[in-house]
Amino acid sequence: MRTLITGGAGFIGSHLCEQLIGLGEEVLVLDDLSTGRYENIAHLEKEKLQFILGSVNNTDLVAECIRQCDQVMHLASAVGVRLIIDQPVKTIETIVGGTDVILRACARYRRPILLTSTSEVYGKSEKVPFREEDDRVMGSTTQRRWSYACAKALDEFLALAHHYEYRLPVVIVRLFNTVGPRQTGQYGMVVPRFVRQGLRGEPITVYSDGKQTRCFVHVRDVVEALPKLLAMPEARGQIYNVGSTEEVTIGELAQRVQKATGGRSKIVNIPYEEAYLEGFDDMRRRLPDLTKVHKAIGYAPKRNLDDILRDVIAEFGRSEKRNG
Ligand code: UDP
Question: What pTM, to 2 d.p., does this model score?
Answer without folding.
Answer: 0.96
